[in-house]
Amino acid sequence: MSMPMYVPPEQLIKDRADFAKKGIARGRPIVVLEYEDGVLLLGENPSGSLQKIGEIYDKVAFAGVGRFNEFESLRVAGIRYADLKGYSYGRADVTAKGLANAYAQSLGQVFTHEVKPYEIELIVAEIGDITADTRIYRVQFDGTLRDLDHFGAIGGDDDQLTSRLEDGFEADMSLASALRVGCDAIESLDDADEVAADGWEVAVLDRGNGRRKFHRLDAATIEAARQ
Amino acid sequence: MSSDARRYLSGSLPIDAVTPHASFVTLLDAEGLAPHWDTAAGSDMDIPEATTVLAIKYRNGVVMAGDRRATAGNVIAHRRVQKVFAADGYSAVAISGTAGMAIELIKLFQTELEHYEKIEGTRLSLEGKANYLARMVRNHLPLAFQGLAVVPLFCGYDESADEGKLYTFDVVGGRYEEQDYATTGSGGSEAKSFIKTVHDPQMDEPAVLRAAIEALIAAAEEDAATGGPDLRRGIYPNVVTVTAQGFVEIEEEQIAAIASDALEARP
Q1: What value of ipTM does the predicted structure carry?
Q2: Right CATH number for B24-31+47-265 from 3.20.20.10, 3.40.50.10900, 3.60.20.10, 3.20.20.70?
Q3: Are B105 and B136 in contact (CB under 8 A)?
Q4: Quick check: A83 and B114 CB within 8 A?
Q5: Digits of tens for pLDDT over chain B (267 positions)?
Q6: Among the four residues A17, A205, B109, B209, which has the most C-beta atoms within 10 Å?
Q7: DSSP string, chain B
Q8: Contact, A125 vs A151, CB < 8 A?
């Protein structure tokens, strides 16, 4: 019987992390921004049907970057978790914090136990009745969970994007200005081209929307806001 | 309960599902959380029952209305029961029969439609929703034989055909599309006789709202299990419309005005 070659755990984790980061950096990023009535999620997505941003529950939304099949299975698992929880307890008991924690647990588990780590990053956002109750969480490929203040970005060039958002963000900005800041930040990336209005995928969690706060914005709205 | 039950509500999420099935009820079953009733045959307990609900097609779509009374035997169990609900943004469902089970059935139906919409990214077709509801009623059949029947009415706006549609059901899960109006519950036949005298498919909204509320008043006059508008306590029927603009719940003040007007005009 041959002995397996010894690999130090530090090296093992680093290799896995490098692999995941490389996969994530290949994809197009998504940015998230607070505005006066809620939270805006947007990214460049030429496909109208394979969506990266989705509704989870009344006040909770999801966005994923990286491998589509991997974050899609997490999106579906999140909807199941939320609907089961809301049905078994009450609608108010479904929170972004609970879901982000569950995602972090799952991704942490996959990172250390599976053959290949997931090459994805996620955002889970929730709006409250007032701006101060808005919660935005970022979950990374290894299960690292972070709480974002007001704005953030996932995917390739996230550091560059975050600094652009930092320059453009103002508290209680209108939806149109938030759209401009977000789109401009993505288009200003080094290797980015100008994106047509129908090349964006944009959704909001808006306090004015009744029970289900999630709503997608169409190309005409985006075009109007950017003019 | 299966061995892997309650996986979703305990810590990390199971993400092994390669091909997701979009059904919430299937998921509930797998998680061991599906509602389950087991009653001894021939139980003579008095369990609250919900009565008269009706739906009428009109020019813009469908109006649906229900009284607010639930009875247990000869006792008024509840005065402010809601029997008409939004199923989703473009359809409504009303219930008659064993109240507790019917309300649970509605909650499951609503969650199922929303779950499907979120996972698939598109709403079920109106016929798909009606078929699904028929299956839920059919699964309930063993309890119906023990006197615990649940009979819904379902209506919605068919976006592909660009018209409102109305479906009735029987306890064995039979699903029937109605062309003009439908009623169910103990006061249903009285309400139906009233609607027959005033119905016209080209009715406008004020006329159809008035017809729906008057039909409930007519039913309440003849059927002890149906509650009419109660002006003193401020209890009024639930009335909703489903049109091309979607589901709309009619404001209570508007219903109160029509109800007190209609009561005064009664012979």
Answers
A1: 0.92
A2: 3.60.20.10
A3: yes
A4: yes
A5: 344 556 787 777 877 654 456 789 888 888 888 888 876 655 677 788 878 999 999 999 999 999 999 999 889 999 999 999 999 999 999 999 999 999 999 999 999 999 999 999 999 999 999 999 999 999 988 888 888 889 999 999 999 999 999 999 999 999 999 999 999 999 999 999 999 999 999 999 999 999 999 999 999 999 999 999 999 999 999 999 999 999 999 999 999 999 999 999 987
A6: A205
A7: --TTTT-TTSSSPP---SS----HHHHHHHTT--------TT------EE--EEEEE-SSEEEEEE---EEETTEEEESS---EEEEETTEEEEEEEEHHHHHHHHHHHHHHHHHHHHHHSSPPPHHHHHHHHHHHHHHTHHHHTTT--EEEEEEEEETTTTEEEEEEE-TT--EEEESSEEEESTTHHHHHHHHHHH--TT--HHHHHHHHHHHHHHHHHH-TTS---BTTTTB--EEEEEETTEEEEPPHHHHHHHHHHHHHH--
A8: no
Domains parsed from chain A with CATH numbers: 28-226 (3.60.20.10)
Among residues A146, A157, A155, the alpha carbon closest in space to that of A24 is found at: A155
B51 is catalytic: yes
Q: How far is A67 from chain B (nearest CA, A)?
A: 14
Chain A residues touching residue B8 (CB < 8 angstroms): 77, 80-81, 84-85
The sign one gets for the Cα dihedral A78, A79, A84, A87 is positive
Per-residue DSSP letter, A114: S
* CA distance to A13, A15, A113, per residue, from A5 (Å): 16, 15, 18
